[in-house]
């Protein structure tokens, strides 16, 4: 039985927050959501919500009293808030922290060097140091691109309009996971604190290629001519660095530059986009069959 009972989720909105919240509410954990006073996120009935000043470590520390675990799904553009949260959790005596990862393997040397992951890597290093001193335990959860989100917004392909950018040709296998399975993975990690202590855990619903996804879409009646373009992830990385250079000069940059780095991490050779080993069995995630993936694609046609 887990010695973690009371759990705080920070970031109940966004691409992954709702799925994690749903999984937590279906578990035996006591769940509290920390929100800003002006938050518009709608929470399920019965979920406790606490308005918190995220700019105040003291306020966060007070709010975290009696909590056993903290999960952060804060976006990449709120690093100071996560820093405050981590410091407050340690001061409050929280047992387990799951920082905002939920994507590419940022322990991979090539991926972790990409600027878009700088703050995530900094959080990892901070937690490693605090864990070595016995002040906290932590998990990093890596799941690759979110499968249902990626299909919905066209990150993986646009099945409805028969369009896709094929990164490095579209035949590179990558690990991918649905939001619901990410939620199960979080619950699984918290339910097995000894087995997941102070390490990354890896979860995937499937290993696929973009061209395999297109074939599945075609089998659903989306055949005919697709508008595809091969895009080299090395070129995406170079263009993203160029946009960062503009920002450094105070110039306006293309706001999509973070996604160019993320695509490099998912599909670039040697960036760890396909996980060699996963923790599905421990975490209670069974994965998806090809027919189940095809059923998921059907939702976005």
Index terms:
301 residues; alpha/beta; two-stranded parallel sheet
Can you walk me through this structure?
The protein has 301 residues and is an alpha/beta fold. 39% of the residues lie in helices and 16% in strands. It has helices at 17-25, 57-63, 79-92, 109-112, 118-132, 147-153, 179-191, 210-218, 233-248, 257-267, 280-283, 290-298, and strands at residues 6-10, 30-35, 48-51, 69-72, 96-98, 137-142, 163-167, 174-176, 199-202, 206-208, 227-231. The strands form 3 sheets. It has a 7-stranded parallel β-sheet, sandwiched between helices. Strands 7-11 form a two-stranded parallel sheet. Strands 8-10 form a two-stranded antiparallel sheet. Helix 2 packs across helix 3, helix 3 (79-92) runs parallel beside helix 5 (118-132) and helix 9 runs antiparallel to helix 10. The longest helix has 16 residues, at 233-248. 45% of the residues are buried.
Write a brief caption for the model.
Helices cover 39% and strands 16% of the residues.
**Structural class by helix and strand composition:** alpha/beta
Number of helices: 12
Which series of helices and strands comes N to C?
Answer: EHEEHEHEHHEHEEHEEHEHHHH
First-residue to last-residue Cα separation: 43 Å
List the helices and strands and how they pair.
Elements: E1 6-10, H1 17-25, E2 30-35, E3 48-51, H2 57-63, E4 69-72, H3 79-92, E5 96-98, H4 109-112, H5 118-132, E6 137-142, H6 147-153, E7 163-167, E8 174-176, H7 179-191, E9 199-202, E10 206-208, H8 210-218, E11 227-231, H9 233-248, H10 257-267, H11 280-283, H12 290-298
Parallel strand pairs: 1-2, 1-4, 2-3, 4-5, 5-6, 6-9, 7-11
Antiparallel strand pairs: 8-10
Helix pairs in contact: 1-7, 2-3, 3-5, 9-10
């Amino acid at each position: 039985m887990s010695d973690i009972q009371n759990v705080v989720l920070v970031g109940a909105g966004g691409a992954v927050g709702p799925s994690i919240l749903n999984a937590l509410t279906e578990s035996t954990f006591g769940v509290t959501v920390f929100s800003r006073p002006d938050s518009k996120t709608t929470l399920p009935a019965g979920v406790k919500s606490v308005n918190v000043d995220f700019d105040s470590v003291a306020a966060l520390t007070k709010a975290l009293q009696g909590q056993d675990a903290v999960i952060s799904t804060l976006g990449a553009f709120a690093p100071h808030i996560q820093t405050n949260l981590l410091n407050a959790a340690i001061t409050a005596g929280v047992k387990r922290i799951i920082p905002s990862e939920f994507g590419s393997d940022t322990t991979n040397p090539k991926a972790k060097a990409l600027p878009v992951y700088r703050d995530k890597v900094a959080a990892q290093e901070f937690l490693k140091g605090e864990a070595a001193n016995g002040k906290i335990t932590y998990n990093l959860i890596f799941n690759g691109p979110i499968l249902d989100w990626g299909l919905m917004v066209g990150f993986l392909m646009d099945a409805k309009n028969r369009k896709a950018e094929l990164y490095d040709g579209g035949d590179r296998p990558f690990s991918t996971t649905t939001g619901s399975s990410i939620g199960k993975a979080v619950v699984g990690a918290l339910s097995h604190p000894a087995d997941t202590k102070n390490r990354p855990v890896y979860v995937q619903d499937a290993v696929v290629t973009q061209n395999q996804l297109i074939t599945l879409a075609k089998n659903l009646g989306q055949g005919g001519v697709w508008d595809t373009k091969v895009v080299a992830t090395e070129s995406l990385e170079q263009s993203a660095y160029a946009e960062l250079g503009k920002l450094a000069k105070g110039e306006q940059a293309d706001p999509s530059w973070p996604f160019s780095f993320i695509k490099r991490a998912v599909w670039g050779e040697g960036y760890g986009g396909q996980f060699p080993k996963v923790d599905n069995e421990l975490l209670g995630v069974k994965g998806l069959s090809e027919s189940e993936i095809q059923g998921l694609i059907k939702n976005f046609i």
